[in-house]
């Protein structure tokens, strides 16, 4: 049996990935802020939500697609922007882009992606959104946004929940830095995981590809605290397409974003990687939905691990969901075959949950 066939859930993919990845890389992907209570709270909040089974409904024909900014998508979930995905496996960024193209779902392309943003939107056949971090005095940030616009991106996702990068002890213990600094501890780690080490060496060391441009410098640990509402107004004025703000957990903030012309809000605590004490997005979602109204687009990420989780989020007010770590676990476990298997597993979980709760269309989950 191949490794991909052993992926039956997000957790089984995670278990395989844990064995195959260097400890430093696994803990970078899997870790969270502080003592990781926030990550546990994300999961507990989702686990505490029940879905009500309904009986004797004809649910033999189910539609898992939905509409996002006027465009049809194959599923109500997409690919969250993630930095340095090629650490999970050589070519991971392109695997994700091909999956986005195949299923017509959005690929979030991170500021700190391992592959240039122009390459990824081409591979995703246009199904790509560019995620932007504010950096320094903002001049490089605007240049990067202009570059994304020139490359054909229609959606810009501004991440606002990282004024200072959270402390993640698992990374600190392993001495994780970008670029890598190789000491005795890291050398032993890589030596004990030869498949990853040799394949990564053959493909070339992953780097933050989008930052390699004149007039732009990016340090993933630097302060981003100078971003404010004027920063948002400047981006809104220059960006011709849709603008999404990611990292929102407060209803009043969401209302103001809507008033400022933001096209959608992504309710997220960054996978609990920044503020350990932040509330779970699924807990604050209903209040944010009430604040912005029934028709305003709301997206959600953080803590999602199954198709049932997606249905729970939709039932509480989300229009669309994004998975992050799950995809990297699948790639680390079994490459592109594992990634495709993970997509099928999540789709099957969602479809079965819809059938058992009497739904034939994703868009009816919020009814």
TrEMBL record:
The keyword Oxidoreductase applies. InterPro entries: Alpha-hydoxy_acid_DH_FMN, FMN-dep_DH, FMN_HAD, FMN_hydac_DH_AS. Pfam families: FMN_dh (PF01070). This is Alpha-hydroxy-acid oxidizing protein. Its cofactor is FMN. It comes from the Bacteria. Residues 2-367 form the FMN hydroxy acid dehydrogenase domain. Keywords: Flavoprotein, FMN, Oxidoreductase. Signal peptide: none annotated. It comes from Thalassococcus arenae.
